[in-house]
Amino acid sequence: MTVDQGFRGQLARLLDWEEAHVGLDAAIEDLPAAQRGIQPAGLPYSCWQLLEHIRIGQADILEFCRDPAYRKRQWPAEYWPKSPSPPDPAAWDASAAAFRRDREALKALANDPSVDLMAAVPHGTGQTYLRELLLAADHTAYHVGQLIVVRRLLGRWNEA
After folding, report:
1. DSSP string over the chain
2. Residue 5's pLDDT is what?
3. Phi, psi values for residue 36, rounded to 5°
4. Per the omega criterion (within 30 degrees of 0), is the bond before 76 cis?
């Protein structure tokens, strides 16, 4: 089965578009540093923990797609930061930048005509490249929704 460039372009856009919902960039924009580590009552995570979990999950998917020596991480210890607060003031921006860099790499993978999106990842257990790209988009969208909930509870989300 072949995949045309129109489909590849739509798949790449799915990784960061904001046509149907808020994307990660908007969800983390202008959040004061003092509120990044707050876990609102009744929720087990902060905005920092969600951002870092999204980054780690996406990085893991990208690594799985590219690295024949991929090592499966331990769930949940290696997918969630232990502390609700960033370890230092620069960690928030570094996490966001790493997420964006890996997102661009996934978009490039989606757009690369030499990659058979329907083919199984050679070192996987049947997962296709298409499945992994859809998983990255789905995972991010799910947790971005949680980021918005946390921001609303913190009084830091104004939906226009």
Report:
1. ----HHHHHHHHHHTT--SSS--HHHHHTT--GGGTT---TT-S--HHHHHHHHHHHHHHHHHHHH-TT--PPPTTTTTS-SSSS-SSTTHHHHHHHHHHHHHHHHHHHHH-TTS-TTSBPTTSSS-BHHHHHHHHHHHHHHHHHHHHHHHHHTT-----
2. 79
3. -70, -25
4. yes
Q: If you count them, how many residues does the chain have?
A: 160
Nearest to 48 by CA among 104, 89, 76: 89
Write out the two tokens for 136.
Answer: 């990255």
> Where along the chain do its domains lie?
16-41+69-153
- The first and second tokens of residue 46, run together, are 């902060």
Query: pLDDT tens across 97-114, in order?
Result: 999 999 999 999 999 999
Does the pTM surpass 0.90? The reply is yes
pLDDT band for position 146 (cuts 50, 70, 90): very high
